[in-house]
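Predict structure. Chain length: 195.
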Amino acid sequence: MTRSEELRLIQLAAAGDRDAAGVFIKAHQPALYAYLLRMSGRPDVAEDIVQEAFVRVLANLDRFDSRFRFSTWLFTIARRLYLNACMKHKPTYDTEIVGAIHAERQRPEASVIDDEVHSNAKDALQVALLELTPEQREVLVLFHQLDWPISIIAQHLRMPEGTVKSHLHRGRRRMRELLEGTEQGRQTVSEVWVS
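Prediction complete.
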C-alpha cells in the first residue's frame, strides 16, 4: 500500500468509514502480531495487545501526524501497551506454540525431517531471543523479522542510530553465544546448515 493510499484510508476511517479502517487494519495486523509474538513469546498476549492497539488507534486517528509513518505510530502504541502489560505481570513463554504459529506451510516436496529441523531451529531461536535484553530482542525482531531500517527503529525506540546498531550487534553476538553454547544449540545450528 502506498503512503498516499494509506493516508486516504486513514482520513476515511477517521470520518467513520469502517471498510477503510478494515483495509488498513488487515494491512498492518500480521506484522504487528508477529512483532508482539516475538517480543512476548505468548500468542494470547500478542492477540490482546494487537486488539487493544487497534482500538486505541481507531479512537485517536484524528491525532495521527501524517508527516510520520502510520506503522511507526501503530507500533509505538503497541509497544507501550506491551511494556505496561509486562509491568503488571511477567509473561510465561511457550516456544512450541510460537514455533507452530510461524511454521512454514506443509509443502508436498518437504520431508518430515526438514520440517522437524526448521521447527527445532525456530524453537531454538525463540528461546535464545527470550534470553536477550528487551531492547536487544526488540531491535533484532524489528530489523530481521520486519525488515525495518536502522533509522526507523531509532525513531520508533527514541534512541540514537548508534545505540540501535550497538543493540543489534550485541544481540546478534549474544544469540550466537546462546545457540552455540549448548550441545542442543550446536546440534540445531549444524542441522540447519546441513539441510
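Summary: Residues 95-194 form a domain with the Arc Repressor Mutant, subunit A fold (CATH 1.10.10.10).
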